[in-house]
Design the sequence.
């Protein structure tokens, strides 16, 4: 259950950042702003897909994720490092979106 929730959170994280970036695409005028927004959308979506995929393939068999009593099961990946990387990237992209929004809001006023 926890792993399923984590995978949904990763998808929602990408969707929320993409929706903000798509909104900003409607108001930005400079080409480098547009390129930066597409970079945010693409990189966040790709990292979320990778994170979700690694979540499910980190243990053999997959059921070992929620049932550690399975004999012979093991996890080859420390998912904490993946989660921290995704969290740091997400926070950085939040700052990029906030700064870009503030910069363009001042230009509109």
Sequence:
């Amino acid at each position: 259950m926890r792993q399923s929730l984590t995978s949904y959170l990763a998808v929602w994280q990408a969707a929320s950042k993409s929706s903000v970036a798509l909104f900003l695409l409607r108001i930005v005028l400079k080409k480098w702003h547009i390129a930066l927004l597409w970079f945010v959308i693409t990189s966040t979506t790709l990292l979320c897909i990778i994170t979700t995929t690694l979540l499910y393939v980190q243990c053999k068999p997959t059921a070992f994720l929620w049932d550690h009593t399975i004999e012979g099961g093991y996890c080859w990946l420390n998912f904490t490092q993946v989660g921290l990387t995704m969290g740091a990237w997400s926070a950085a992209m939040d700052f990029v979106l906030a700064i870009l929004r503030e910069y363009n809001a001042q230009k509109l006023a």
Q: What stands out?
A: The chain has a mean pLDDT of 88. The first helix runs from residue 2 to 25. The longest strand covers residues 59-60. Strands lie at 59-60, 74-75.
